């Protein structure tokens, strides 16, 4: 989350009777963030690791059926996702990521770069191991994959009216996955899937339909075998959506 220095300075200025001037500083000087600070305005045509970090944050703001590539290249899909993110949070939707957009992201992220409403502890239960070990990818990759899923869920949560989404399963090691009866090709073993339980505030079908425009290519819900008590969302390269009862 954003450091509170700016707030303290503003209060101090008010106490001293001064005028609070909202200075438009370049991002990075105005809004140092504990997680990640962007140091330039990003717009279509640019590329770099800072673009990729932006793409992770807006991956849940795609059109229905779209899956945003984290390629570090600010193309039309990234521009459209940034516009939807901006509209979703009441900002001017110009598709350019500048101070206002970065400040909103800083408000939405914790020091470990996960979004404020989700945390690794909700995703790495792993049958009690509480880590990302033993899957089909390295623990570091699984953790990073899970972070992207969290940002997609943060977008889904906001679009469904800022109501809590309860995660009942995230990453699972190969042995954990088989012990709970998961598919032998389950995305849970890659940190690319999450299950949203019945104690979530939105209904199962609201979560199922909402996930289509949150970048998920695998969405399974009520009526699909084994999915009457949760909605499964995941990232993969081909689409498979099924919830016959929705
Ligand atoms: Zn699942």
Notes on the structure:
The chain is an alpha+beta fold. It folds into two domains: 5-108, Muramoyl-pentapeptide Carboxypeptidase, domain 1; 120-242, Muramoyl-pentapeptide Carboxypeptidase, domain 2, CATH 3.30.1380. Helices cover 34% and strands 8% of the residues. It contains eight helices and five strands; from the N terminus they run H-H-H-H-H-H-E-H-E-H-E-E-E. It has helices spanning 5-15, 49-58, 76-88, 99-108, 120-123, 139-159, 174-179, 204-211, and strands at residues 167-169, 193-197, 218-220, 230-234, 240-242. The protein has a five-stranded mixed sheet, with helices on one face. The model is unreliable at 4-30 (pLDDT under 50). It binds zinc ion. Zinc ion (ZN) is lined by residues 169, 188, 193, 195, 232.
